[in-house]
Each structure stands twice: as C-alpha cells, then as structure tokens.
Amino acid sequence: MMTKAKEKNEIPFMRKLVIPIIAGGLTGFAASVGVVNFMDGTFGDDISTSRTIAAIVGALYMIIAIGVGIGAASPALGEKFLNTEDADEIREMRSVLIYSAAGMILWGGALTILAFAAPSGPMPAQIALITTALMMAVGSWFGWKSHNASDELFARVNMEATGIAYVGTIVIGGGWAMLAHLEMAQSLAPLDWLTLIYVAGLAAAFIAAGKRGMLKLK
Questions:
Q1: Which pLDDT band, with edges at 50, 70 and 90, does 85 fall under?
Q2: Within 44-93, where are the H helices?
Q3: Which residue has the higher pLDDT, 79 or 159?
Q4: Transmembrane residues, as ranges (predicted)?
Q5: Do 31 and 60 contact (CB within 8 A), yes or no?
C-alpha cells in the first residue's frame, strides 16, 4: 500500500514539475540559440549585448504565452502541463489565460522588434516605433481584460506582482543608476531599461503566485 501511494504521488510530481521544467528549459535554450544565431546573421560584428538579451527575453515571453494559450485552448492538453487541478479549472480560467497569453505575445513581440530596430538593426526606426507602440497598447488592453476577468485571488496576485515589479525595478535599476552616476559601473542603455522592466514583471508574477501558494503541485 505504501509503495502504491508513493508511486501515485510521484506521478503528479513528474507530470506537473519535472517534465514541464525539462521541456521548458530545452525550449528556452533552443529559442535562445536560435535568436543568437539569427542576430549574428543579421547584425554580424555590430551585434550588442543589449539587443541580444532583449531579443531573448522577448522570445521567452512569447514562448511562455504560446504554452499558456495552447493549454487554455485545449484544457484536456493543458491539464497535463499547467499547474491546475484539472481541465475544468482551466475552462473556468480560460478567458483569463487567453487574455494573458495574448498580452504576453504582443509585449514579447514588441521587445523583440525593438532589438532589431535601427540604427543598428534592419527595421526603420519609425516603423519600429509605430509597430511596438501599437503592440504594447493592445497588449496592455489584453492585460486589463485579463485583470477584469480574474477572480479575487488572481486580482490580488496581479496587484501584488505589480508592486513587487515596481520595487524590484527601483532597487535594481535605481541602484545601478547610482553606481553609474558615481562612475562605478557602466550606464544602462535605454533598451536595457526596457528589458529590466520585462524581467522584473515576469519574476514578480512568479514571486506573487508563490507567496499565495499557487505554485504548489496540484
């Protein structure tokens, strides 16, 4: 009996944690390698670390969003890798997940486009500005729709994540700015600040969800 119970507990652990982490890690690594190789071919020797990191972060946003979107569109498939009780819970959260996924794809795409924009990139600055401004605006609208469709718990997590991201950006970005002002570190480029905001937002979402116990295996 003990052996059967242990095996039963190991199944959700493997399915909900180990397998998604391995799959996500491999996907993220493959995407990062693909982005770097593509940028090498596009920029050649003119490639910068700021652009590379921004493109990778933007791609990761889109990969996460695609995974969430697929899970929301197909609850039977989503329950195999999303941390939910079952497919019914995904159906209840479908609108929230789809809105969030749409927003993340647009935000991630906007950051990736900026990484390829002029003056060093192939995309003209004016086109990049108009495109990314529209993508960020529509992405923010989807984010607002997701917030409005959330239940009380998710709404609180969103607000807490916003606060954590704000503090994180102030502490890390502000601390770096002070060091740069004192000529003890190199100043962050404008694209670095955007990337920092993106990373802080993603990290804050996981921190807020973890504080609420939403990352526990189900």
A1: confident
A2: 49-73, 75-78, 87-92
A3: 159
A4: 54-75, 96-117, 123-144, 164-182, 188-209
A5: yes
Of 95, 64, 56, 100, give the one whose Cα is nearest residue 82. Answer: 64
Contacts of residue 176, Cβ cutoff 8 Å, sequence gap at least 6: 185, 188
Asked whether residue 74 is domain-assigned, the answer is yes
Domain assignment present for residue 75? The answer is: yes
**Residue 195: predicted pLDDT:** 96
Q: Is residue 190 assigned to a domain?
A: no
pLDDT at 22: 56
Q: Of 147, 129, 116, 138, which is closest to residue 51 (Cα–Cα)? A: 116
Q: Which amino acid is at 97?
A: L
Looking at the structure of the chain, the number of domains it has is 1
Whether the predicted pLDDT of 2 surpasses 50: no
Q: Is residue 120 part of a domain?
A: yes
Structure tokens at 85: 């009780």
| Separation CA 29–CA 152 (nearest Å) | 35
Encoded amino acid at 9, one letter: N
